[in-house]
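Incident log, support desk, overnight shift.

02:14 A customer reports that sequence design results differ from what the structure should imply. Their input is reproduced verbatim below. On-call engineer (initials T.W.) acknowledged and began investigating.
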């Protein structure tokens, strides 16, 4: 059974789903969001701000990357009251990239490339 697809969160018209405007949450999750019955609050903000909006009661819930959640939760006491919900069938997160401008020194780029290579499975 697809727990996320059948979860009452997405079908509750009283809940407000907070979304970062202009961001894709991945094809599968985007389709579930489009079919949801939730009120949707779209904002052009970063993930940290969206998490704070949930803490402030401006959104009922958001979809957030686990690493982002743990990073923010460890830094801000007001987030301790929020409860993460994990779904076994949650689609895998999207890949993340490091994007550098041309003013990043070559030695820094070399260190980044070596660090990435060291963590990349062979």
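02:41 Re-run completed on a clean worker. Output:
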């Amino acid at each position: 059974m697809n727990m996320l697809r059948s979860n009452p969160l997405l079908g509750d018209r009283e809940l407000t789903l907070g979304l970062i405007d202009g961001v894709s949450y991945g094809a599968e999750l985007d389709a579930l969001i489009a079919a949801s019955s939730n009120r949707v609050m779209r904002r052009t903000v970063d993930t940290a701000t969206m998490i704070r909006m949930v803490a402030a009661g401006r959104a009922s819930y958001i979809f957030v990357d686990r690493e982002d959640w743990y990073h923010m939760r460890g830094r801000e006491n007001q987030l301790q009251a929020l409860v993460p919900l994990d779904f076994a069938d949650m689609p895998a997160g999207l890949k993340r990239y490091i994007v550098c401008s041309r003013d990043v020194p070559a030695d820094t780029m070399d260190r980044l490339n070596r660090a990435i290579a060291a963590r990349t499975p062979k």
